[in-house]
Amino acid sequence: MLNSLRHKLIGDLKANRGAFLAVWLTFTIGMVFYNSTYPAGGNFKNLLRGLNERTHLADLWYDIDLAPPAAVDAARAAAGVARVSGRLVFEVGLEQKEAETESLVTLRVISMPESEEDVNNIVIQEGRAPEDAGEIVLMRAFARRHDIRVGDVLRLAGGIAGTPWEVEVVGLFSSAEYLIASRGPLSPFPTLSTFGVAYMPYDALAARYDAAGQVNSVVLTAADGADLTAVRAAVTEALQPYGIQLIMDRLQQPAVATLAANASANTQIALVFSLIFLFGSGAVMAVLMARQVESERRLIGTMRAMGSTRGEVLGYYLAFALIVAVTGALVGAPIGYLITYPVLDFFQSGMVGTELPFFSNPPQLGFMLVGAAAGLVMAWVAAAVPAWRAATTDPGLALRPPTPSGAGGLARARMAFLPRTGRQALRNLLRVPGRTLGTVLGATAGMAIIVISFAVWDLLDFNFTHYYNTNAYDFVVTVAEPVLHDVLLRQVEGVEGVTGVETGLILPVTVELADRTYTALGVALADDREFITFETIEGAPAFSDKQGVWLGNNLERALGARVGDTLQVTVQGQSATVTVQGIVKQVLGAPMYVPMSLLQEWTPLGVRPANQAYVRVDPARRVDVQRELSGLPGVIGVADWPVTTQDIQRAADFEGEFAYIFLGFGMFLTFVVMFNSINASMRERRHELAVMRTQGVSMGEVVRLVTWETMLATGAGLILGVLPSYWLVQYVTQLYDTDVAGNVFVIYPQTWVAAVVILVAIALVSQMPPLRGVRTINLGDVSKSVNV
Amino acid sequence: MSGTPLISLKDVIKHYVLGSEQITALDGVTVDIPAGEFVVVLGPSGSGKTTLLNLLGGLEAAAAGTICVDGEDITRLSEAALTQYRRHKVGFVFQFFNLLPTLTALENVDMAAEMAGAHAHDPRDMLARVGLGERMSHYPGQLSGGQQQRVAVARALAKNPTLVLADEPTGSLDKETGIEVLQVMRDLNRQTGQTFVVVTHNSAISTIADRVVRISGGKVYMVVENPEPFEPSEVDW
Q1: Which domains does chain B have, with CATH numbers?
Q2: In sequence order, what are the beta bridge partners of B72?
Q3: A424, exposed or middle or buried, with CB in 10 Å at 0-12, 13-18, 19+?
Q4: Inter-chain CB proximity B60 and A780 less than 8 Å
């Protein structure tokens, strides 16, 4: 570069330090955001992956009847199996220290792995492993929620004897299998208030349940490279004689699937926003560089007229972009990396509820370099395109006033029906499309960012509110084995304080559609039930037709089923062919709902079985009723539905908070994009507006003109942003989908209204400082120079 | 002096502060300009000509003194009133034309006429009178310097102002084009009776004026009436 140009560059940077700082800050903030959110998400997933590997997380889970060790041997012999562990899993009640204020808690007690090589091992984070019969280790997040510490003694209720027994908490653990407290396929979100996991020595647990030498859970990993479908088929066949109750892979195991999906979705969203920020800052750079070049058009013409080559002109603007990109990347990347620590902490506390047992947060150098390179390329392209265009313009033409490029068609229309300011605003917008585009794209990007952020809340609110509202009862009572409906009904109704009871039957079912087989939960409910009032995706009540089954939207997606499809359903060895009558909204779980009248057609003598009771109670007797229900014969669980919903909502709220963080950053980016593009546009037009002022145009008219232009460009951006926003929300919606959780797509009308209001406000605020600048123009300068 | 003065400046002072230095651009200027005359303010560069014009046009504020235009002291006007003054009473012709680049020739003139309201001239007619009837739909970038200046003249006159102020209207033009522009202005002055104040450093142009105000060092040192002005076509420089 010529020395004189180098001096000009330094002089320009000094003279336009405000504009330079705006470009630099936008770019640097883009780099900070890019280098913080997605790498933190990636490292969080790596931490999960590392924990999975170190604890040998199972690929397949089999719940079976109590069986001898031969069951484990049979599974081990199946082709493609790498590791197999057999274990005992039971659920007991945990008596609370302050039972008057807390609900009954279910503790899933699992036999302690014998060695670190066992499948689904655990990591002791505090204390030690249990050694004696009276010792357990407790899930760390659960212990924290209930303020239980190492050394505390707990009273458990359950087991063959049915009498409470005491255990000492000797340690707290984390495990890949239960990083979050998901109880089962129908309640995949963590419900720490009512559900936790503990491990105790095998012999002690077996003794409690008279199950010495037996197992009821077989977990296994597949060999590297093995086809999981084939392995599943082989193991299923091998375990068939042992009474398979439920089969799950990692996509179906609720805790693993939910956490993996959340981590993946949040990381994907972080990537989307990182890229939006990166490209947003690139777009700002492009707009500002284009406007700067345009405003220096006469200068470029002069330089060229004096003999500067095109390369020298181009080099000048590339150097400007290089300074922005390199310093932005050098500052943004390290700051971004430092921010990964609090972001990782946020992920851990929000998604897991406690610290992971292992921590590692290496800088993602490759990602950083890609971002820096992309930033540099964007900055160069942003600078090079307008600079080359200006440099290749004939110097004589460059010294003339610029002729509008968008000067045909509509731009030429007289538009006499519009007021003068509106007409002129429209002409300006249409005749200088490059300048208009900056504001339009800013509004479009802003629309997308704001709508996505709000829509995540819409999704959670719509789906979870619907979920809570469709289940209108106080407790769910679960009995170990199905009994006759009348028997369960009488038992529960006999408890003082119970004001209403309905029953249902939940059993694992195998569903086949074409070549797809899926283990789901079949839920049979009374045709005329009132406590569970789910509805179809279209909003109609379910069970309008009793001649078929109704699938939850997650099962529909997992199976690829449609209304009218014929399914082969197998339950406890018996098969039936059924038609899909409808798809119902069901954010959690992948159930197949069966009208009780249809189920009775399949049962011997048309009996009506039940293993769950949905109970409404007198609020004044809530605690007493819960205790009495827990003591009924055969009852293995009494879930407090309002407490459960609070836990679910707590987990859902994390996603909402995550969305709000993006909303905050998104609004900032939108403001920066719009502020810079409007500011650049106003700077470029400073002289033009000053000339108008000399002609007698009042400041109010200038404000109206600029506001017309801003609003028209913003309006165009908003209209253009509708479809991309809609598509991006659809994309984000499916990021959260798993086999056990999935949202019905929705965007509330108020989200669109909010996006429009916010963007209009941002646009109006953005034009205020430059308009103040117009007010301070010395009109006398108009007659003294070509620029003011 | 022929007729009632349209413009009356009395003891007008104007300073500029440039860095730590205060420069006096006008130093007690007192001058009267009658209505309907074609007046040339003549002086070398830096003499205060443009400052005088800016003060007359309400583009800048005087530090002291009074400036009466059409019976109104514009130094006492508010910002809003000054805007109305510029809108209805003054038409500007700048050395560098200062047309709005995104508007065609017709639209530039139309904007001024529309602002002036009912008493404005027809923009098409004004463009035709400056010889641009065939170039109305051209953008400024598509016109020559002389054509742009003629559009600027049409824009200034379309408002039908009381006073037309022209700052070095031929400064960016070659001689032939400059004479054309001056001829247009002189003709319109005679046809409409509007007062023209033209600022220039070119003494040859002063020969076409009804009155010449000579200025130097921020002071008016001579006002000369010219009973038999030349036609622009007779001027040579």
Answers
A1: 5-229 (3.40.50.300)
A2: B69
A3: buried
A4: yes
Cβ distance of A696 and B79 shorter than 8 Å: no
Q: Are residues A600 and A548 in the same domain?
A: yes
Q: Is residue A298 part of a domain?
A: yes
The pLDDT tens digits for A563-587 are 999 999 988 778 889 999 999 988 8
Q: Are residues A432 and A554 in the same domain?
A: no
CB contact under 8 A, B101 and A696: no
Residue B89's alpha-carbon distances to A53, A233, A697, A698, B117, in angstroms, are: 85, 94, 13, 14, 12
A766's CB contacts (< 8 A; 6+ apart) are A671, A674, A675, A678, A679, A710
Q: What are A702-756's pLDDT values in tens digits?
A: 999 999 999 999 999 999 999 999 998 998 888 777 777 788 889 999 999 999 9
Does residue A669 share a domain with residue A597?
Answer: no
Identity of the amino acid at A451: V
Tens digits of residue pLDDT in A128-172: 999 998 999 999 989 988 889 999 999 887 665 567 788 999 999
Cα separations (Å) of B17 from A660, A787, B63?
A: 51, 20, 12
Q: Name residues 62-121 of chain B within 8 A of A (Cβ).
A: 79-80, 83-88, 90, 92, 94-96, 98-103, 107, 111-112, 114-116
Q: In DSSP terms, which residues pair with A655 in a beta bridge?
A: none
Same domain for A64 and A112, yes or no, is no
Domain final residue pick, A213, A237, A271: A213
How many CB atoms neighbour CB A515 within 10 A?
A: 5
A462 with A590, same domain: the answer is: no
For residues A75 and A223, membership in a common domain is answered with: yes
Cβ <8 Å between A401 and B155: no
Contacts of A396 (CB under 8 A, 6+ apart): A301, A305
Do residues A439 and A681 touch, judged by C-beta distance below 8 A?
Answer: yes
Question: For residue A136, what are the domain limits?
Answer: 89-213
Could you please report the per-residue DSSP string of A33-101?
A: HHHHHHHHHHHHHHHHHHHHHHTT--SEEEEEEEE-THHHHHHHHSTTEEEEEEE-EEEEEEE-TTTTT
A692 vs B contacts (CB less than 8 Å): 100
pLDDT band at A223 (very low <50, low <70, confident <90, very high): very high
Tell me which residue of A361, A182, A192, A343 sits closest to A260, measured CA to CA: A182
Q: Into how many domains does chain A fold?
A: 5
Q: Specify whether A77 is located in the same domain as A224.
A: yes
Chain A partners of B50 at a C-beta cutoff of 8 Å? 780, 783-784
In a domain, A20, yes or no: yes
Report the relative pairing of strands A609-617 and A498-513 from DSSP bridges. Answer: antiparallel
Residue A475 lies in a domain: no
